Amino acid sequence: MNPLSRAPLLFIFSFALGTTLLMGAFLDAQPGVAGNPEPAPPQTQKLTASAIQLERILPPEDLLIPEDTRVSMYENVILQLTKTKKFQHVYRSGDRTAADAPDLVVLHLIPEAFKPGSQKEREVITVAGTTSIKVKVQFTSREDKVLLEKDVVGKVRFYGENLRATYDLAKKVAALVNESF
Amino acid sequence: MRIRSVQTILGVSSTQGELVRQSLRLARLLVICVGLAFTAIAAPSFGQQPATAQNLPSSMIPNVKCVIGLENIKPGTTGTLTSLPTGLEFATGKRKATVITSSILDVFTGQESRQDVSGMGGTLVEAAIPYGGGRFVSLFSHKVDVLDVEYVDSDGGFHGAIFVLPAGKATAFKNQLVAQGAKVSRHVEAPQPKDQKP
């Protein structure tokens, strides 16, 4: 065979071999996808509760968050929790009737970071002006035992008012509730 | 014959003249009656000032948007915010929500800037303008006041309501609530979004 005609064949063969090796390495790195199945990570046991109470959002002293953002976050989370239909009752902070709930889970939202953006910047420059809120979502028992803890970030990137970040955050909290309960 | 014909002509002309005069009199009477009727209808309204936003009592603010937080009121509804002797009332065409003064925990006011063209329709219009003209439209904004009211319901559950008012109205409304006995705590200035800074 002419060496000139052998060169493209060699190239194709080496390319195919390289791709196969790379794919093999990738599949090996994915647990449970390749041929030798690794034991799946222990499925987090789903929590059960018939009622949930959302505590007031009190940011740490060194973090200043506008009041409307705090209030909007609280109310949006209440609305989204109700929409999940995972609980018979969604109690607000301070609700006296929550004392009678048999298995109550308490939800704490602890703000960790807040970046005030700008609607005008978002709409004019597009890549700037993002408003974001980072919150630690903590589900505890009535006795303050932490059942689940996760960080959630609410953002508004392109279009919409700054308070829309709180709506985004509430949707993500509701998604976390849906996968954990 | 000539004389008779002249008489008949004169007779005809005289009756025509009378007819014209009578119709003129009737027209005058009609004009006077219509004028009187208009005066009678308009008299009470001349005594009143036109019902614009400036002339309404300071306790009643129309075109207020309830962003979120009132029971039985859909988020984003526009209505009238009224300061009652017992608290505040937000009323839309069909629904009303009342917060009594004794249940108010705190009241905050702030200023924000809102885009002149906003919402889903506005966004579509901006996107439809060629050569990025929509971005130019986004530069136009107006100031609004924001009023946050934190309160508790009859079971002690915490609520927070956010209202967007026309510029310069929130502080006066807050002062009215405070005068009625609403609790207000000391507030620390939080960082405002860049477009809200003066």
What would you say about this model in short?
Chain A has 181 residues and is α/β, with parallel strands linked by helices. Helices cover 38% and strands 23% of the residues of chain A.
What does this structure look like?
The complex is a heterodimer of chains A (181) and B (198). By secondary structure, chain A is α/β, with parallel strands linked by helices. Chain A folds into 2 domains: 1-43, no CATH class; 51-180, ABC-type transport auxiliary lipoprotein component (Rossmann fold, 3-Layer(aba) Sandwich). In chain A, 38% of the residues lie in helices and 23% in strands. Chain A is built from 4 helices and 5 strands. In chain A, strands 2-1-3-4-5 form a 5-stranded mixed beta sheet. In chain A, a hairpin with a 5-residue loop joins strand 4 (131-140) and strand 5 (146-156). By secondary structure, chain B is α+β, with helices and mostly antiparallel strands. Chain B has 2 domains: 1-48; 60-187, Pleckstrin-homology domain (PH domain)/Phosphotyrosine-binding domain (PTB) (PH-domain like), CATH 2.30.29. Chain B contains 4 helices and 7 strands; from the N terminus they run αβββββααββα. Chain B has helices at 2-47, 119-128, 133-138, 170-180, and strands at residues 60-68, 77-84, 87-91, 96-100, 104-115, 141-152, 158-166. In chain B, strands 4-3-2-1-7-6-5 form a 7-stranded antiparallel beta sheet, with helices on one face. In chain B, strand 2 and strand 3 form a beta hairpin. Chain B is flat and about 90 Å long. At the A-B interface, helix 2 and helix 3 of A face strand 5, helix 3, strand 6 and strand 7 of B.
